[in-house]
């Protein structure tokens, strides 16, 4: 059984507060959702789940790539550093590999 919100109005300065905030034991009725809307939402969620289950992507692993990391977290850090600073450090890296670095 649902009860409607009973707004009590008092005289004086606090008139807005008493009508805005419910008293203890009062239930705020917000309305009901239609069954067709609930069914539509459930069907949409099911469609999203099936779409996600079909999507998967294998990460490419290059066997011949140089290993310059000690764990996966360090590998990601090195990839980010290479992406942002690789063009600036390319000459230094080549000199170190050749042994001609100062």
Briefly, what is this?
The chain is mostly helical. The chain contains three helices and no strands.
Order of helices and strands: HHH
What is the mean pLDDT?
79
Q: Which structural class do you get from the secondary structure elements? A: mainly alpha
Low-confidence stretches: 5-14
Cα gyration radius (Å): 32 Å
How many DSSP E strands?
A: 0
Bin the strand percentage.
under 5%
Largest sheet, in brief, is: none
Could you estimate the helical fraction of the residues in percent?
A: 40-55%
First-to-last CA distance: 85 Å
Helix segment count?
A: 3
Question: Per the principal axes of the C-alpha atoms, what is the gross shape?
Answer: elongated
Task: Report what the structure shows.
The structure is a single chain. This protein is an all-alpha fold. It contains three helices and no strands. It has helices at 15-20, 35-54, 72-98. It is elongated. The chain starts with 14 loop residues before the first helix and ends with a helix. 0% of the residues are buried. Residues 5-14 have low confidence and may be disordered.
Topology, element by element:
Elements: H1 15-20, H2 35-54, H3 72-98
Task: Name a few traits of the molecule.
102 residues, mainly alpha, 3 helices, 52% helix, 0% strand
């Amino acid at each position: 059984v649902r009860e409607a919100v009973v707004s009590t109005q008092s005289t004086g300065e606090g008139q807005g507060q008493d009508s805005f905030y419910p008293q203890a034991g009062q239930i705020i009725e917000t309305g009901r959702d239609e069954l067709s809307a609930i069914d539509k939402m459930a069907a949409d969620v099911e469609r999203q789940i099936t779409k996600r289950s079909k999507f998967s992507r294998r990460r490419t692993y290059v066997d011949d790539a140089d290993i310059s990391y000690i764990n996966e977290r360090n590998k990601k850090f090195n990839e980010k550093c290479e992406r942002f600073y690789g063009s600036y450090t390319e000459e230094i890296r080549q000199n170190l590999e050749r042994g001609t670095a100062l």
